């Protein structure tokens, strides 16, 4: 019979510690320390208290905890002496059925890993869905993590321990994240569609109006109908639009959604999470036969990534009346124009202007998105409140010095283009670090035709600078460009710097951001605010109506645009719960 | 009637200033200041005194001198109002015959140049051979120099003014550098041979045992015979060996020479100068019917650059018994093995071991070489004494961090591989600057697959470190590698660093270096010592016998491995004179 939070909150400390026995391997002290935070408002609250207890305990205690895990993912994976707990977890991952090659490979990895890190490899083998990882994925993860820097890998071990604890807690409390599992499964199903050339290799690529893309639209449409949306349509640019009516025919709408296209060999959750989370919340309303004083319009945007055509944010742009007619004549790599692709998909180009939404018919726009960054996962916090979508400026630059012989040109007679760039890179790092939320990156650095024995005469490089407000970005850009000039002058270099892109910041609307904060707090999840460094469809809607975003933690350092992009069904459940809470709150406000 | 140095030395100051009138445009004060250095031992001495007078006068006086030159290479180039002096120089360069397009182009360049630099374009239009530059070359130089940094171009203007003065002095004193002109012409003639694919584009490329290479050997052989060498042969690896017998049949030999192969699209003087300068000196001996108490063996080494095959220093290596038999099976880019190439050239591979020289038969080895660096030209000094051929160590490296999203990864959570490399590059610059004669270069820097919006996860780079002694090089290498490790540790990066090449320093033999110094001083040329940053055949001979090198100033910042490599026939004359002086001194020692 499952535990309840009430029982845990009411129990004496020794009783409560006993209730939480085994959640953290051989470490009842973690439960004991966390209990000082009682009463727990939610499982999320309890989990975070335990995370904090371990954090506060310091590096030695953390290492001891990691080392208390030999059997879980180490030798025990392939031995007969599994603990009952571990046996259960291992068998869910199928690890008890290793063939001899897999067995040998795991043994070798264990040996290498221990040599390199001095602690055992820890992996939550039940995986982000709780149903177990394939053996091949476990082995791949093992091999990949072997290459991590030591301190990073220690953090990764702890994160896996917290994930194991989360799964064990769910078992103890009988708290299956059923909505999260559904959302997880919807992503899996949608990810079965991939463009030719990628599908064959198991890679996910869905670009604008390919067969796979149109299949995705079809699947999302059908999913929306199954969830109980009243109207579902694919619009003139391929957006999938589902409307769940409000209680009154003239009710305003809450607009939400995100994109279903992907980058090449991308992740499964980028964009799509922002479609499926609201769909799950609407399904709950529909199941309960509930209508709100406002309608809910969920849009699966057809295009955000600008992959097949250079037309980033095409889907959300259409909703605010941005559609560049010259895009229609762009050709993809096979020479197919966008116009042909749209005709082929049965889309009516002439109707695009009609997609523009009327501001007064909407309450605002919210968007759920996977973080695509490491912040939440490193803090062990499942949800994050977006304060602003950072403004951005990008430059493509070249530093020009004089190429000369590396042996014969004395140090004080050089005009080394790469050294000027090196100085600028380090200045950028230091300058961006001064401002909260700013980032600056030199992503491309190249000495063209460089030789080991030639002082670089040229160095091509790029600048990417972002900040939560335009003013903060502009100050950053001005300082970096001024430094570029001063370095060039001091070193006798010349340079070019071409603005490649500039986008305004989209600060979250305070009232809408506050609604997300209230939702997250109601779940017992710690409140964490962060800017979004990446651009999102919300940037476009920002130009028409108030907007605010919710981030969901990503695993694997928050890696994105990569097949390793991942999150858990537990975190997805929290996102659905937060969305539902936001609806409830909005209903109360509009009652 | 030509002036003589004796007249100049004996004259009163006003008389002497009048004698030197017009050498520096409208600036008799330069002559006047230089006269305090009387008596002048040579024209070289006078020239250097004038260079120093201008140097001492400071930036304002230098700029005034540059601005005193409007007619020379500015408007006057194409106007009718040329001074008598300029008319003479201009007509030698054919500048008075500009067609309308050239006229318009030069006018545009003059306008652009004046706008950019604020002073007129100065070029010694009579060129390094004194016989005038083609109009197309003048225009190309003009366009190229327009891109120079301002302070560099000011130096280049002054260097051209000194060159103009040198030509005018030669006219006044009737001092044609006839031997220098011959050596110049020999280079021109040899440069007519170039490998297919390059010859068609007017580029000079002579790689091991191509038809062009074999034609060069043939021409050098014939040139040696014409100079009066007693024995001339092409040896088993293609070296051209000329011997001028000593006065006694058992006399020892002075060994000298350099290589006649080139890099791809290389310069005309790299290597070859060290063959032709001794040839000219031997021709003088032969003309005078003179024998020395030692023989002179001049070797044109067949291979130094390692272009067609990876077998650098093949020619000089053979003389010390270094010939790697595995080289024979190396294939060039057309699949031709070195063995086939040698057979095709009629070379007898079996005889290679016999090329090894017996130490006791030689006095030592000297080598004349163009500097391939900017030191002498920037100091306005025509010859340089090499103190050591720098030891070298090269590494091919990679820094490995974690690629992540440039927008979403906060500054303090990055593992930016390129920033670690940037730090190391700046450290190298600072560390190498601490030691006299050391250089350190990061010639290759590349973020593979870098994107404007991705934090670099990898950065490939190279290290090239050189120093006049092995101990100094080793200390430099150790410090740089220690810093690499410390940067990587601090930034959570990993790295690989693979030693790609290591060569020992070859310090000049003190007695032989002293002979070059005496020769240079006897010419009235200021003494300047410098290490050789580049490798030379002398490094190989160093392993068998004492050696010392003489450098000849290169124009165009001493650029090398480039068609712009150049030097003047005046400097070549000085090199022949220095070589002849060294022979004379050695004869006296061995009398």
Automatic annotation (TrEMBL), chains A, B:
Keywords: Hydrolase, Manganese, Metal-binding, Purine metabolism. Its cofactor is Mn(2+). The keyword Metal-binding applies. InterPro entries: Amidase_Cbmase, Bact_exopeptidase_dim_dom, OHCU_decarboxylase, OHCU_decarboxylase-1, OHCU_decarboxylase_sf, Peptidase_M20, Peptidase_M20_dimer. This is OHCU decarboxylase. NCBIfam families: hydantase (TIGR01879), UHCUDC (TIGR03164). The lineage of its organism: Bacteria, Pseudomonadati, Pseudomonadota, Betaproteobacteria, Burkholderiales. Belongs to the peptidase M20 family. PANTHER family: ALLANTOATE DEIMINASE-RELATED. One of its GO terms (biological process) is urate catabolic process. Residues 9-170 form the Oxo-4-hydroxy-4-carboxy-5-ureidoimidazoline decarboxylase domain. GO terms for molecular function: hydrolase activity, acting on carbon-nitrogen (but not peptide) bonds, in linear amidines; metal ion binding. It comes from Melaminivora suipulveris. The keyword Zinc-finger does not apply. SUPFAM superfamilies: Bacterial exopeptidase dimerisation domain (SSF55031), UraD-Like (SSF158694), Zn-dependent exopeptidases (SSF53187). Homodimer. Residues 390-488 form the Peptidase M20 dimerisation domain. Pfam families: M20_dimer, OHCU_decarbox, Peptidase_M20.
